[in-house]
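Limitations

Structures in this collection are predictions, not experimental determinations, and the ligand pose is part of the prediction. Treat each record accordingly. The example that follows, with zinc ion as the small molecule, is included so readers can see exactly what is and is not provided: the inputs are given verbatim, and the output is the predicted complex.
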Amino acid sequence: MVSRVTFVVLSSVCCDSAYCNCVIANEFNMTAPIKKARKPEIITVSDHIAWSYANLARADAALQGGCRSYQRTHHIIRSRLFNGLKNGTMAIRSMYDDERLKMTLPQACCYCGATDNLSIDHLIPRVRGGADDADNLVWACRKCNSSKQGRDMLEWMSKKDGFPAILLLRRYLKLVSRFCDENGLMPTPLAEALQLDLPFDLSLIPHSFPPLSELTLWIYPESSVDVGEIPHETTGVELPTDQGD
Ligand SMILES: [Zn+2]
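Predicted complex:
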């Protein structure tokens, strides 16, 4: 279905600032017909990560807005972020917001929300080559930690048909992106990279996300804050909505 809305400033339909370092502020022609989004051709590791990350930003925007289904604006956010990451006009943002969340949210297991018997977990395990620095460290209860053992977060979750909280997946994708960037893997054909022995399983990086009703921004401890209280930077601009998608 083709939709038409008025001109807006590009920055108002940019992805959330917690996702990219977008500084472009030109006008974007929102009157252009928007075709139904299709999955782009994924050739390189960079494409692979960028598409997952763009889908993540789309889900984040929808959840932050309390939407039950994706609207046109959310698809634009995904499309713009993916294209920006691909052509180099945008970059995945630093861990600033992720670290801020870690410091401000109640201390709880990031996998189940338990607040007892907490320990430190390496999101990407050290035994697999995960970094031993703060960005890779999260809170985990003893039960989740012992269940996860030396497995990568996505590998562990996929075994139990789970899907991580959006903001946890954001941290994870940033770690994967950083590793691939530092090791010169971004331009590598994905098929080739899948054969490499990496600290994570590239094949598990999601392109398809569960429905919004099954996603959550964060796993909260019981009787804790609700979604609206997450300290989260935004563009500060209300995004246009469209009933057509
Ligand atoms: Zn737990």
